[in-house]
Fold 23S rRNA (uracil(1939)-C(5))-methyltransferase RlmD.
Amino acid sequence: MGANEVSSSVNFIARDVTLKNRSHRRARPSQNKPISSPIRLLSIEDTTHEGHGVARENGKVTFVAGAISGERVEARIVKEGRQFNQAIAVKRLQDSPDRILPTCPHFEQCGGCQLQHMNISAQRHLKENWLAGQFRKLSLPAEMSRLEGQPFGYRRRARISVFVKNNHAQIGFRAKSSNEIVDIDQCQVLEPFLQDTYQALRSYLKGSALVAKLGHIELLYDNQGVCVVLRQSRDIQDADKVALNEWAKSSSVTLLWQAPSENKVSQHAVRHYVVDDLALNFQAQDFIQVNTQINEAMVEQAMSWLALSEDDVVLDLFCGAGNFSLPMAKRAGHVLAVEAIETMVEMGRLNASQAHLDNIEFIAADLTQSPPNRIKKAKITKALLDPPRAGALEFLPTLVRLKPQQILYVSCNASTLARDAEYLIENGFRVTKVCMMDMFPQTSHVEAMMLLQK
Ligand SMILES: C[S@@+](CC[C@H](N)C(=O)[O-])C[C@H]1O[C@@H](n2cnc3c(N)ncnc32)[C@H](O)[C@@H]1O
Ligand code: SF4
């Protein structure tokens, strides 16, 4: 990396802070002075999982934007707190061997990625260490395993914001440091077909009056190809949709228009993706795992860790349309799959019937509430949970009472996983396997899989 490249990245951060301080000055006129905090020489000892440096001076931590572990920087303190300070690197005196030039030209502004300035192996090492820190209160096996896939081009779905300001359309993602939308002409974490579709769609919309009537764009790539949902913020006449509909047809893109009054597209478009050689139908705006490659590896690993046999009766909690339930039903005697959203439950039933799996029972239930008797009285041998970020605390007493021999927990939020695992450990389980799953490379998101054994 050349010296110019280094300084341009640091300059951006400095500009960003200047903007923030301008709005700060408006709010508090008494502080209407340029920032004159001294420049400090800092050695960066660590990196937060969000990609900021951590320095320690006399026992006090300073978080340094624009620096990573192993670097020496000149930094300006922008906020002094009782517990920690915040600073901005204004000059790097020594680069970390883990630093690389971000691939995406929007990285400094766009809030979509946090770690592109670190090489991929350093990113994964950072995520593992961070996960181990989140699990510090738990007794863990000596080794944490890892699921990793391609570092770019992995996202099979994304939501892109649209905003028109002073007759200028901004189409892209939220900024790192504000709610503003960063105008993005290409996004390299998107699956390549989505990148192409996005570029074509964006250039059409940039020259069209339609853009002022759109709230956001959803992009999806699955085994049927590319699907685009255009969320209208104001009604668009059918005649004004013709040109885009024709573009979509000629580009083999399924284009769906979501009316301002609709929560979901009215067409209820049924799509499908493949996992474990099973076709899973879902509705275009339903949850599916974002990273195809990691999802396949994750399901395969879950099957291997659970080592199911015909004797097993498995409870699949937060099952969606059956991403884990169907693969488990191929191997176990019976699967009881539970999901709150009725339409996903119906989709799960359709998926099971199309795969000729008659040993899955899909149940619609809100797992934060008292569960129905069918679940409370189930005789199970194993359980799999894949809850949303809030975790599954409310259901854990019931789960413990059901006495599974094994619980496999898939999590998108390490802190609720740590909390829930602590509860399970207090109730007689021990952690036998842990895995860091890099579902979202280049970002600070970390997913985890944990196996607990009675
Ligand atoms: C992280 S997704 C996992 C879905 C599925 N296991 C998969 O791999 O595709 C979490 C699922 O939990 C469902 N969910 C969220 N809150 C719930 C609740 N309180 N009770 C039951 N299901 C819930 C969501 O609708 C979603 O399908
Ligand atoms: S989300 Fe896309 S546009 Fe934003 S920084 Fe990441 S790769 Fe670039």
Q: What stands out?
A: Residues 104, 106-107, 110, 112-113, 173, 184, 187-189, 442 surround iron/sulfur cluster (ligand 2) (CB under 6 Å). The chain has three domains: 3-99, 126-151+273-453, 157-258. Residues 1-34 have pLDDT under 50 and may be disordered. The domain at 157-258 is CATH 2.40.50.1070 (OB fold (Dihydrolipoamide Acetyltransferase, E2P)).
